[in-house]
Amino acid sequence: MHAFSSGFVARFRQAINALHPVDDSTLLNFLEQFEEVEAKKGTILLREGEVCRHLYFILKGAIRCYLHDETGREVNLHFYFEDELASEFKSLRLQEPSDRNLVCMTPCKLLKAARPDYLPLFETNIDFNQAAFRFFQELYLQEEEHAEMLRRLSAEDRYKYVVEHKPHLLQRVSLTQLASWIGTSRESLSRIRARINS
C-alpha cells in the first residue's frame, strides 16, 4: 500500500468531492490502485495508434495531449497540470486505438493506475460512478468551450481569452504550444502579443 501524506489525501479528497461526495474508504481504495512513477521531460505516455490503458494523477509537472493534422503539424488539444487527472479518455473508455499523444512537458512525478485495477470502483460504487460522470461532463464542457473559442473568435481575441481566463498557460506553456492551442502560428501570436503589449 502506498503511504500518501495527509496533505495529499486532503487535496485529492477536495478534487473528487468537488465533483461528487465520495466516502473516505472508497477514496483510499481508489488511491491504493495507483503507483508513483517519475518521468523525464519528453517522456511519451501514449502514442497515437496505441490503446490507452492508464490513468495518471499529476503530483508535479505538466502533460500535454496533442494530435497531428493532415499536414503532420502538431495540434495541442489539452494541457494537464498538478492535482489533475490526465489520460486520453476516449481511448481509455472505449479501449480503441487513440489518434492522440500524451507527452510530459516537464519532468513529472505521477500516480499511475491501470484500467483493470480501478474500473471495478466505477462499476460498483454509485458515488464514485457519479463523480466520474461529473468529471467527464466537465471535460466535455471544457472541450466545447475550446472548440467554440476557435470557431467564434479571431486569433487576437483568442489570445485575450487566454490572458483573461487561463493566465496560467502563459507561464506554463511555450509560445509554440500556446499558438497551436489557440489555432494560429507562432509568428502570428508573437505579432499579436507585441501589438497588445505596445
Which features characterize this protein?
alpha+beta; 2 domains; globular
Task: Provide structural commentary.
This protein has 198 residues and is α+β, with helices and mostly antiparallel strands. The chain has 2 domains: 6-139, Jelly Rolls (Sandwich), CATH 2.60.120.10; 153-198. Helices cover 49% and strands 21% of the residues. The strands form 2 sheets. The protein has a 4-stranded antiparallel sheet with strand order 1-8-3-6. β4 and β5 form a beta hairpin. α4 (115-124) crosses α5 (126-152) and α8 crosses α9. It is globular and about 55 Å long. The termini are far apart.
**CATH topology call of the largest domain:** Jelly Rolls
Q: Which ranges are low-confidence, i.e. pLDDT below 50, for 5 or more consecutive residues?
A: none
CATH superfamily of the largest domain: Jelly Rolls
H/E element order: HHEEEEEEHEEHHHHHH
Q: How many H/I helices?
A: 9
- What's the Cα radius of gyration? 18 Å
Instruction: Tell me the strand percentage band.
Output: 15-25%
Kindly state the number of beta strands: 8
* Distance separating the two termini: 55 Å
The total tally of domains equals 2
Q: What shape does the CA trace take?
A: globular
**CATH domain class name of the largest domain:** Mainly Beta
Helical content, roughly?
40-55%
Overall pLDDT confidence: 91
Question: In order across it, which strands form the biggest sheet?
Answer: 1-8-3-6
* Largest sheet properties: 4 strands, antiparallel
Q: Tell me the structural class.
A: alpha+beta
The name of the CATH architecture of the largest domain is Sandwich
